[in-house]
Design a protein that fits this description.
Elements: H1 3-28, E1 34-40, H2 41-47, E2 58-63, E3 67-73, E4 78-84, H3 95-124, H4 134-160, H5 164-169, E5 178-185, H6 187-208, H7 219-231
Antiparallel strand pairs: 1-2, 1-5, 2-3, 3-4
Helix pairs in contact: 1-3, 1-6, 3-4, 4-6
């Protein structure tokens, strides 16, 4: 492939990586990862509410990795509340899982920024054939994609398997008990998903630029090896 086309491909991949890095950094600080609704079971059972009456006992919340906000309703009007994961909810959430989500999000951001630099260096510089060249591009794309995948899996498991929304709704609520009704992944979660997809795309762009996947031998190399074996 001509050098000019390689420059265009690497520049495109670098810009995509840079946008992803900005997106992940922004997503980390927002409360737009999950939107959930929850029912005040205690209040609904006391008055035997059903149908549209249940709306008076439905609360909602949205939260991210560090903070969130919501409204509780138990038939006596709305009660807004705000919360911080650190240090407010340390006793209520699976701390190890939550910290790993934040950790892998940080690694994703750093690897994506480093990948941006590598793509631009390969577009306009004269990279070596090892870590600064195609091998480094493949490695960083793999690390970034893997971290993005782990962030989504860990966060989804924290929400669904550990019932995170329900634990938040019931935090410091001794009188009323709340039950989660619905949960939807919001903007910031899908930003991470898009970044995961972009890193997979970047791997294909590197291959399209004419560089083979790591550890894949070309036919020419295999033929030369076989010929050398026959000679000896």
């Amino acid at each position: 492939m001509p050098n000019q086309q390689k420059k265009v491909i690497f520049c495109m991949a670098g810009v995509l990586s840079f946008v992803c890095a900005l997106g992940v950094v922004t997503a980390l600080g927002t409360p737009f990862w999950i939107k959930a609704t929850f029912l005040c079971k205690t209040g609904a059972l006391l008055v035997n509410a059903s149908g549209q009456e249940l709306d008076k006992f439905m609360g909602e919340m949205q939260y991210g990795l560090f903070h969130g906000e919501g409204v509780r309703q138990c038939g006596l009007g709305a009660r807004p509340f705000r919360f911080q994961f650190f240090p407010d909810l340390l006793k209520a959430i699976p701390v190890s899982v939550h910290v790993n989500v934040i950790l892998f999000s940080g690694i994703l951001t750093l690897a994506t920024m480093l990948g941006t630099a590598f793509f631009m260096y390969n577009a306009f510089g004269k990279p070596f054939e090892t870590l600064h060249g195609p091998l480094g591009l493949y490695l960083l794309s793999f690390i970034s994609g893997s971290c993005g995948c782990l962030v989504m899996i860990l966060f989804a498991s924290e929400v669904k398997m550990h019932h995170l929304s329900e634990k938040i709704a019931n935090y410091k609520e001794g009188t009323y008990a709340y039950k989660t009704q619905s949960e939807k992944y919001s903007t910031s979660f899908w930003v991470v998903f898009i970044c995961f997809f972009v890193h997979c795309l970047n791997g294909l762009l590197i291959r399209f630029a004419g560089f083979q996947f790591p550890f894949a031998k070309s036919k020419h190399t295999e033929t030369a090896t076989v010929a050398a074996d026959l000679m000896y």
